[in-house]
Amino acid sequence: MSEIVISNLHAGIDGNEILKGVDLTVNQGEVHALMGPNGTGKSTLAYVLMGHPKYEVIKGKVIFRGVNLLDLEPDERSRMGLFLAFQYPIAIPGVSVANFLRTAVNARRKADNPEDKGIPIPEFRTMLKDKMDLLKMDHAFAGRYLNEGFSGGEKKRAEILQMAALQPEIAILDETDSGLDIDALRIVSDGVNALRGEDLGVLVITHYQRILNYIKPDYVHIMLDGRIVVSGGPELALTLEEQGYDWLRKKNNPVSA
Amino acid sequence: MARTVVTKTRKITGRESQEFMFNEDMIPKHVGASDYMRKYREDAWKTYQRLAMPTTNDEPWRRTDIRKLRAGEFHLPVNGNRKKLPDVPNELLKPLVGNQHAGQIILTPGGTEANLDSELVEQGVIFTDLTTAERQHPDILKKMIGKVIKADEGKFAALSAAFGDTGVLVYVPKGVRIEQPLHSILWGPGLNLAYFSHILIWLGEGAELTYVHEAASTNEPDGQTMHAGLIEINVDPRANLRFVELQSWGDHVWNFTHKRARVGRDANLDWVFAAVGSKLTKDFSDLDLIGQGAVGRMSGFYFTDGNQHLDHDTQQNHFAPNTTSDLLFKGALKEQSRSVWQGMIYVAPGAQKTDGYQANRNLILSRQARADSIPGLEILADDVRCSHGATVGKIDPDEMFYLRSRGIKQPDAGRLIVQGFFNPIMQRIPFDGVRDRLDQVITRKMG
């Protein structure tokens, strides 16, 4: 069974340190929620784990399947089984969802076996249709250009469709709930829940408790100023909902508070 | 992403262009050819002598410097060296549109092959090489040659008119609709050679045709070869022409072309340009909408690498009311290559209800590559709709990261982005074979 183990991770952007020693372990089969106010480093953590070139790692390591992920290129991390559902998915003009996903699936197959000729088209179509049905998506979606002109809800569904097609071992959902109305949130959450299982570990990044009503976490962590300051069970999210983050700020920074 | 480039050209002084070593005795004189053709070529020769070599002081040539053209070293392919040159590869003879040709012409320095479906011959269709046309169809040639493009439009236009005896005559009589495409190949192998071509296309009233023409050669690592050519097109009222041009010259070829299509009342021209070859190209392509309700679409694909320099100069001339033009040129550039697109929409006085559009989009794939994009409008009527757009952009690093985060390796992600960039042009090319060829070019140049 795979796990991702983040130890003493410090990272930043443009010379500003944002992550100031993150420690977190997510096992396959578990759902973890990472909560915290805006600007506290949650999305930075997501980007750093995936290897966004704008962020620099200062120190620490992230062990996944026996290697330090931080030494790998983003595409290598993905092929090892890491997935990031973007808060703001990027439009790729002129590239259809189907063409893109087939390229991504084939990239995995070729990495496993350089002789691989790629997934046969009929097999790919069947797979894609199954996954779209799972997410209650119109099959015409496959022919649309990736994220181009997609509504907020369509973008997030497209992210989960990619997750379903690529079958990661660890998935990070970065504010997947942001910008979704309640119906879209339910559909996206149903999709994630349908993919839940022993083989998938999930890190749900959010600053609202709302999505956790649909995707029930096993563990909740709270991040403040670049570190995880408290971890607990699902009840921690409810405490936050009632009391906000102030009690944690006081507890963690008594001098300035 | 959007950035319009305004260019200042540095004047480089001190070196003059070389002169060509051609002379009057080299003007083709074919047995059985008409006096008209002889006079046409002789007049063109005089025009050629009168005109100076273009320099970067001439407005259309400001961004394209030809002083490195070793003009003095070119000679015409003659019988003696034909046999030594490589033959046209079979790959280029395959149909690019549908499964079969209605006719094919192969023009090589070793000779010409031409064939046309016998049913079309009976219907009065002419599809033959220019030398044969000079013998067999002098009256049609007389009506067409030099009528759409004048020899005095430029030094290379005059040179092509004087020496261009390699070529094609396409004539589709009134009302004849040809379903399968016609296909011609101009094959210009070898070094230090000058190829001249002249293509004439005439669709009679209500006629229909799809025509694919490809110019290609070997790739020679050192040295130069040149091609200069003319394409004169007449699309009579209510006729419909789909014309696909593939420019696949080798990296050593200096290519100079003048093309113009005249489109008559309620006629339609769908013109596709795919330019992937040559060391340097200077192309003038004009769309003249001369009859009410005429429609013309120009779709350009170019992908340059190495030290290639492609310069496309386009004109959309609305001479009649209710005419429509739609131009989209898209190009990707690698390494130190360079492209120039300079386009003009002209609306003549009285050409009301004109709808004109032009757009040029460039994707720069290296720091040293450069694309100049210069749109232009000149509107002398008051009830028109004309617009344009020009952009020069790079691959967005966020797009690259997004694709890589899905496991796609960097080169494949780049290729996917470039394919997506060209997709709007591919959508305008309704021929699988042509699209496949261009996809292969993308894969090869991105590899």
Key terms:
heterodimer; A: 257 residues; alpha/beta; Rossmann fold; 2 domains; six-stranded mixed sheet; four-stranded antiparallel sheet; 8 helices; 35% helix; B: 447 residues; ten-stranded mixed sheet; 20 strands; 20% helix; globular
Question: Gist?
Answer:
The complex is a heterodimer of chains A (257) and B (447). Chain A has 257 residues and is of the alpha/beta class. Chain A has helices spanning 42-50, 74-80, 97-112, 121-134, 152-166, 182-195, 235-243, 246-252, and strands at residues 3-13, 16-27, 31-35, 55-64, 67-68, 82-85, 170-174, 201-206, 219-224, 227-232.
Structure notes:
The complex is a heterodimer of chains A (257) and B (447). With 257 residues, chain A is α/β, with parallel strands linked by helices. Chain A has two domains: 3-89 and 168-252, P-loop containing nucleotide triphosphate hydrolases (Rossmann fold), CATH 3.40.50.300; 93-149, no CATH class. Helices cover 35% and strands 26% of the residues of chain A. In chain A, helix 5 (152-166) packs parallel to helix 6 (182-195). The radius of gyration of chain A is 18 Å and the shape is globular. Chain B has a domain at 24-291. Chain B is built from nine helices and 20 strands. In chain B, the strands form two sheets. In chain B, strands 2-1-5-7-9-11-13-15-17-20 form a ten-stranded mixed β-sheet. In chain B, strands 3, 4, 6, 8, 10, 12, 14, 16, 18 and 19 form a ten-stranded mixed β-sheet that branches. The relative contact order of chain B is 0.10. The chains are: A alpha/beta (257), B alpha/beta (447). The A-B interface holds A 50-54, 73-75, 77-79, 84, 86, 89-95, 99-100, 103-104, 107-108, 111, 145, 162, 166 and B 396-399, 401-410, 412-413, 416-417, 419-424.
